[in-house]
């Protein structure tokens, strides 16, 4: 929570993603490290939900983008006190609101046409997770989606529910993608408890997909609605709640 400020180019995209932090470093110590570069609006260290131990990953939002740029110059590749390896500091890849809004608008308009008639499981190929996205992404409980759900005889609405949160399936990642890419993409939307990139056993390259677990349903639905169709490099991501039919982790 922070004060709302009129949006301007000078404050936009001032959110940094930090990885490789010493597991012993507290949020306050991380702030002290970064505060020499400017005024910090918010900061967060991601913790392992089961153990409460730091994952060595954090986010820092500066007052101004120029301060964030200075922090990258000054700290990326440096070893803070007590660190065994250099830390990585880069801009958090937070998709712009416009992009997310355009995707959502498109999602609702296309869904209204697609689900106008009676639903037949066999003839219309659709995913339960897309209905869930429609229902909860922004227009909660959209009547269109709920009508659609009533036609899903025998299909559970658990979506990606898992014991520790909501599991999200991310497809069309590049072979070079690693866990930090997923932290960076999903972290800005809310509490991420786990990320996993599925690798080829022989080459250790990403097989094109991964999984992200988020604690909060609304945050997970918003992340899916914003990132499904998001262009990452040359690839367009497909993001949905994990269903039992998808690849096993």
Automatic annotation (TrEMBL):
InterPro entries: ELAD_HU_SF, HuC_RRM3, Hud_Sxl_RNA, Nucleotide-bd_a/b_plait_sf, RBD_domain_sf, RRM_dom. One of its GO terms (cellular component) is ribonucleoprotein complex. SUPFAM superfamilies: RNA-binding domain, RBD. Pfam families: RRM_1 (PF00076). Belongs to the RRM elav family. GO terms for molecular function: RNA binding. Keywords: Repeat, RNA-binding. It comes from the Eukaryota. CDD domains: RRM2_HuC (cd12776), RRM3_HuC (cd12655). NCBIfam families: ELAV_HUD_SF. This is ELAV-like protein. Residues 14-94, 166-244 form the RRM domain.
